[in-house]
């Protein structure tokens, strides 16, 4: 068990650096590279903790054993995963939040990956001072503050969650559209900050809502599937919109498509949210009508 390999390599690199600083021989001499290689080999092979690792890990408190567990049937593992997958995504709230997670994360990655190119088109860096790094830092800080503040807002996410997803997706679409069409670098910066704040806010809420509908053993499955779908959609979108083998569109047209993408997400969740709210209002009306019939 090679646990201390990375630590040994770091020690070897540190020793090589010290040799470089203290050596008095010319760099052209064969002695210096030979000494460095020898020092690296020595420290990389030096594992003083290795003889003690196995007894340490086999202590009763570590709950480990030398007995090798038999390999499980791969087909059985796939069947268990598929069963868990169906159980998880049969829950409508979890499915709703997971769909938004995958779709919005795909669009988010596209925007942050190519926003520097858009800013370069709006304001070339060779013509003026740019503050791209500062904008990234400010947007991250404000997003963290917004995420902290949302914990103090009381809202029935089970009832209004889809409507809020629709509204916030529409705001994201508007921010991306403004960033694409205004042509002013400061408007682009402001729109980008709004875009990141809303996304960071919603992705935190989505993470909580998904986790609330899951047992801890299924966290990795659901979040892994959601992330995989998001990355697969991003790959397809990149191949179609960005890659030269696809449409190879200009950066401004790309962001117009991204704004339309988020607008489409807003429409989908607006319809789903309206249906969900209507069903819950109908359920609230049914007990009232039945109670009135009973009293009469």
Structure in words:
By secondary structure, the protein is an all-alpha fold. Helix content is 77%, strand content 0%. It has 10 helices and no strands. α5 runs parallel beside α7.
Feature tags:
single chain; 296 residues; mainly alpha; 10 helices; 77% helix; extended
Would you summarize the structure shown here?
The protein is mainly α and 296 residues long. It contains ten helices and no strands.
Order of helices and strands: HHHHHHHHHH
Radius of gyration: 28 Å
Principal-axis shape: extended
Average predicted confidence as pLDDT: 82
The separation of the N and C termini measures 78 Å
What structural class do the secondary elements suggest?
A: mainly alpha
Q: Which bin fits the share of residues in helices?
A: over 70%
| Strands, total number | 0
Strand content: under 5%
Low-confidence stretches: none
Largest sheet geometry: none
């Amino acid at each position: 068990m090679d646990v201390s390999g990375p630590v040994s390599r770091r020690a070897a690199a540190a020793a090589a650096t010290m040799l470089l600083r203290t050596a008095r021989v010319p760099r052209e001499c064969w002695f210096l590279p030979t000494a460095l290689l020898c020092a690296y080999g020595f420290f990389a092979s030096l594992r003083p903790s290795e003889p003690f690792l196995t007894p340490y890990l086999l202590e009763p408190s570590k709950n480990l054993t030398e007995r090798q567990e038999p390999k499980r049937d791969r087909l059985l593992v796939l069947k268990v995963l598929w069963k868990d997958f169906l159980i998880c995504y049969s829950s409508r709230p979890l499915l709703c939040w997971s769909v938004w997670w995958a779709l919005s994360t795909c669009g988010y990655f596209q925007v942050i990956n190519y926003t520097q190119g858009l800013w370069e088109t709006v304001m070339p860096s060779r013509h003026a001072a740019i503050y791209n790094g500062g904008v990234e830092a400010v947007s991250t800080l404000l997003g963290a503050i917004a995420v902290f503040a949302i914990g103090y807002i009381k809202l029935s996410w089970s009832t209004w969650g889809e409507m809020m997803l629709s509204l916030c997706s529409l705001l994201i679409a508007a921010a991306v559209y403004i960033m694409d069409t205004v042509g002013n670098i400061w408007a682009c910066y402001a729109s980008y900050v709004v875009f990141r704040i809303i996304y960071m806010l919603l992705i935190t809420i989505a993470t909580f809502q998904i986790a609330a509908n899951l047992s801890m053993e299924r966290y990795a499955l659901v979040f892994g599937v959601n992330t995989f779908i998001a990355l697969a959609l991003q790959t397809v979108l990149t191949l179609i919109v960005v890659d030269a083998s696809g449409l190879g569109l200009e950066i401004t047209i790309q962001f117009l498509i991204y704004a339309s993408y988020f607008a489409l997400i807003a429409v989908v969740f607006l319809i789903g949210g309206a249906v969900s709210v209507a069903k819950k209002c109908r359920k609230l009306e049914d007990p009232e009508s039945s109670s009135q019939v009973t009293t009469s």
